[in-house]
Write a structure and sequence with these properties.
By secondary structure, the chain is of the alpha/beta class. The protein is built from 8 helices and 24 strands. The protein has a 9-stranded parallel sheet. A 5-stranded mixed sheet has the order 1-2-5-4-3, with no helix packed on it. It is globular, with a radius of gyration of 30 Å. Pfam families: CBM_5_12 (PF02839).
């Protein structure tokens, strides 16, 4: 930014009179040269660092030029990654810099205080209402005789909650779980072949007694969920409701018509008056395009987002939960490419920013759900460093939550294709991803 000082022009008119009587009066006009305009260069911001995280509005300088960050960025050189609004670049040039900052007045000397130990840095606190709840594929390790959810993620099969359970012995700081998936029509839904009544009897009271919050998730990749009326949906909620139920998730990946999607949105809006503390998440597939196109959700996702936006202001307690996984190809049209691969942490952030840009969805209504370890798309691997990137961005920017697919996969196995019972990422220990999320969240 250039600061222009005031410009002044001065003129002096001097006359010279002849001293000789009768001589003609002669006048000589002398004009002084104008004072030149001075353009003061802005002071250079702190030098750009490849390892520092910059968020929207942060400034950095490089080679005598100031830049301002357009959004969260790390490692993107502003000299080669800058452009104006709509360019898709993380930086905007602010022009040449070089002026010195205004000197800071010398403070009055004061007695040196007794030094105190520097506190250990703590993670950025999650915003109020933030939810971290790994998805639990209830069909994995379930006790088919009692319909009780179990997991063998630690190597031993344990009930999810209860005495001597996974939650009580392994992850007492977990806080919440997302139950996946109820499919079919509300009122006659089933859970991977288990009847609604059987699933409820085997699990819901136990979750409540254990103090573990839960989200009831519907639909999914292999199923659909629909509900014909607001009253039917409220009855659906009532059958699962306890003080520890925190939300309903509509995982919409295919099969629902536009009318069914609009009905689900209307059902959620109507249920808010009866269940004001519940959140309603709409989980959809996404890309993380970094080519400036802001490419993200597919046509089905577009229908979902537009239906949610059209319900405003009736539907307030909603989130758009982006499945930041399986981008399907290493190109800037699909993801953020680093060293010839989709960088999963940065791609998740890009997906959130694309959703904000394209639809105006605020960060407080966005959630992110990566797939830990090996994704279904070969070459796409979500690492612990990606977990750090995603979680730190989510908490620093006021997102509504983070989740992952899935709890039963949080155990290592040999690299290869994606598995339902391990993460095909041998360098991470048992529950390594869950504990990394919890660490980043200060749990």
């Amino acid at each position: 930014m250039q600061v222009k000082k005031s410009t002044k022009w001065s003129a002096l008119a001097l006359s010279s009179l002849s001293t000789a009587l009768g001589a003609a009066l002669s006048t000589t006009l002398l004009t002084a040269a104008p004072v030149q305009t001075v353009h003061a260069e802005a002071a250079c911001a702190a030098a750009w660092s490849a390892t520092q995280v910059y968020t929207a509005g942060n400034q950095a300088s490089e080679n005598g030029t100031n830049y301002v960050a357009n959004w969260w960025t790390q490692g993107n050189d502003p000299a080669t990654n800058n452009g104006g609004a709509g360019s898709g670049q993380p930086w905007t040039s602010q022009g040449a810099c070089g002026g010195s900052p205004t000197p800071t007045p010398t403070p009055t000397p004061t007695p040196t205080p007794t030094p105190t130990p520097t506190p250990t840095p703590t993670p950025t606190p999650a915003p109020s209402g933030f939810v971290f709840s790994p998805y639990k594929d209830i069909s994995v390790s379930v006790n088919w005789n009692t319909d009780v959810m179990q997991t063998a993620v630690t190597g031993s099969t344990l009930p999810l909650v209860g005495s001597g359970s996974f939650y009580s012995t392994q992850e007492p700081n977990l806080g919440a779980i997302t139950l996946a998936f109820a499919t079919g029509t509300c009122g006659s839904e089933n859970w991977a072949g288990i009847s609604a009544s059987g699933f409820i009897a085997g699990n819901i009271s136990a979750l409540n007694s254990a103090g573990l919050n839960y989200v009831v998730s519907t639909g999914g990749q292999a199923g659909t969920f629909s509900c014909g009326s607001a009253s039917s949906f409220e009855s659906f909620i009532a059958s699962y409701y306890t003080a520890h139920m925190v939300g309903v998730d509509f995982d919409i990946e295919g099969g629902q018509s536009q009318a069914e999607i609009q009905q689900l949105v209307a059902d959620a809006a109507a249920a808010q008056s009866e269940y004001p503390n519940l959140r309603f998440s709409f989980t959809i597939a996404t890309l993380g395009a970094s080519d400036g196109s802001y490419g993200g959700v597919n046509s089905l996702g577009d229908e979902v987002v537009r239906a949610v936006l059209a319900s405003s202001p009736a539907l307030k307690n909603y989130t758009i939960n982006l499945m930041t996984m399986d981008y399907g190809g290493t190109s800037a049209a699909n993801c953020v490419v680093v060293n010839g691969a989709c960088e999963m942490g940065q791609s998740a952030i890009q997906a959130a920013q694309n959703l904000e840009h394209t639809y105006g969805i605020p960060a407080s209504h966005i959630e992110l759900t990566p797939m830990i370890g090996q994704n279904d798309s070969q070459g796409e691997i979500t690492t612990l460093a990606d977990v750090d990137t995603i979680t730190n961005y989510a908490t620093a920017n006021g997102l509504a939550g983070v989740h992952f697919w899935s709890l039963d996969r949080d155990t290592p196995c040999a690299a290869g294709s994606a598995s339902a019972t391990c993460n095909s990422y041998p360098s991470v220990g048992v529950l390594g991803f869950t504990n990394e999320f919890l660490k980043d969240l200060g749990k």
